[in-house]
Amino acid sequence: KYMLDLLGQEMVYYLLETKGALHLLNCVPQSPVNRAIRLMKEAYASPVSIRQIAGELGMSEAAFSQYFKKVTGQNPKAFLTALRMEKACELIEQESITDTALDVGYDNISHFIALFKARYGMTPGQYKKKPPEN
What we know:
By secondary structure, the protein is an all-alpha fold. It has helices at about 1-15, 20-25, 30-45, 50-55, 60-70, 75-90, 95-105, 110-120, 125-130.
């Protein structure tokens, strides 16, 4: 009985680690991860925190972060930052760097610039000045 339980746990863990199971989990619209991603996409422009998102889902921040990473392979803070940076690239063409930072949820412009540079290897100002790609 003990070995059967252990084998069952091992199988579940193996399935969670494969992309097929990841796809199945992501197809369930009410899964905590899908709900969290929807919340992030709706609230990326505000200074929403991972703690707030976890609270909306009725989970502790630690449990939510662990579950999110298990399903997506990325921690929720990194996911939210990536989402904000992608939006920033869209907005920076038409707006100032300060307005872009504020529009993607960053009150601290220096922090926004540092995150942008870490992700893209250039500052938002350099990104804005680069010639458009064909």
